[in-house]
Design goal:
Mean pLDDT: 92
Strand content: 15-25%
Shape: globular
Number of helices: 7
CATH superfamily of the largest domain: Response regulator
CATH class of the largest domain: Alpha Beta
Number of domains: 2
Low-confidence stretches: none
Distance between the termini: 53 Å
CATH topology of the largest domain: Rossmann fold
Order of helices and strands: EHEHEHEHEHEHH
Number of strands: 6
């Protein structure tokens, strides 16, 4: 958002439920990142995971805050819902940033309707877990931090990398489907 709005401005944040851990942590991260006199987070809107309400919240924010410059959607559907609501305001110049990587989000980034989206790497979570379990099984030492957390960095999906990101996800899904199909077969079928 800072790159999209270097001059600053009012920003509204949208999420399903504010008291869920990932919502709290994402919101705290946004607040920390935008600690600057140029940026003003005007409100955190919640929708109780109701997509109609998510769109309505965006319309409410636009009516309530005349100088709104940015929207941040903290859950996967918030930014796409914001874009749906913004269709009613074709002359808007509001910058939209989201989280996660659903198809609507990737298309919006590709088409320049969204600035970017912050995505986790669930494949990497599993890969790192299996690597660690393999080492434990083999009796090899495992490096576990004192806080018991292993950091897997997020990916910032932008217009420049959206196609490569989508290809990578599709490739990993294809590998997973192949492996699942292989393991779901009987031993005789798998040998053939």
């Amino acid at each position: 958002m800072k790159k999209a709005l270097p001059e600053g401005g009012e920003i509204a944040v949208f999420v399903g439920k504010r008291d869920v851990a990932n919502a709290r942590e994402r919101y705290e991260g946004v607040c920390e990142a935008l600690v600057d006199d140029k940026y003003n987070i005007v409100e955190l809107f919640t929708d109780q995971t109701d997509r109609s309400r998510a769109q309505s919240n965006v319309r409410t924010a636009l009516a309530k805050y005349d100088n709104l410059k940015g929207i941040i959607g903290l859950w996967n559907y918030n930014a796409p819902c914001a874009l749906m609501a913004l269709k009613d305001f074709p002359d808007h110049t509001i910058k939209v940033v989201g989280f996660d990587e659903d198809i609507e989000t990737l298309e919006a980034i590709r088409n320049g309707k969204m600035v970017c989206s912050i995505a986790q790497q669930p494949y990497e979570f599993g890969y790192q877990s299996i690597k660690m379990l393999h080492k434990i099984h083999k009796g090899e030492p495992v490096d576990i931090p004192d806080n018991k957390l292993i950091h897997v960095p997020v990916v910032v999906i932008t217009p420049e990398n959206v196609d490569d990101f989508e290809k990578d996800v599709n490739h990993k899904l294809s590998l997973l489907k192949t492996r699942l199909k292989h393991y779901s077969q009987s031993p005789v079928e798998a040998e053939n």
